């Protein structure tokens, strides 16, 4: 039996994810775990280059922990705050958010779809 042990710093099995504003690329995703139920919970590593990433309100909840890098983060019309290693962020269903990534960035995210 092989134990599923991952290192968040490993850049293996990365797939392209959301591009930074004004570019064709900028971030990558590595799926760690997905619930076997259709539209189930996902745990993934997200890695991004500096740039702006705008997220419209989505039909999901997300909680992430910043592992590496710094960013200015805002939700809805709130003033942006600086986040970095150790910051834990929760995004409620339907709330738009924005990441202005200042340095190479990595987070571990749990995403829970909400139909």
From TrEMBL:
Name under which the protein is recorded: Putative cupin superfamily protein
Domain (S)-ureidoglycine aminohydrolase cupin as annotated: residue spans: 44-107
Top-rank taxon, per record: Bacteria
């Amino acid at each position: 039996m092989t134990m599923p042990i991952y290192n968040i710093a490993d850049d293996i099995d990365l797939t392209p994810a959301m591009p930074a504003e004004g570019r064709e690329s900028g971030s990558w995703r590595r799926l760690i775990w997905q619930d076997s139920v259709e539209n189930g919970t996902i745990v993934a590593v997200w890695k991004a280059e500096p740039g702006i990433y705008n997220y419209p309100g989505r039909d999901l909840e997300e909680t992430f922990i910043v592992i590496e890098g710094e960013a200015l983060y805002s939700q809805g019309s709130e003033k942006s705050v600086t986040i970095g290693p150790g910051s834990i962020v929760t995004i409620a269903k339907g709330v738009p958010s924005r990441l202005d990534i200042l340095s190479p960035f990595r987070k571990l995210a749990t995403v829970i779809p909400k139909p």
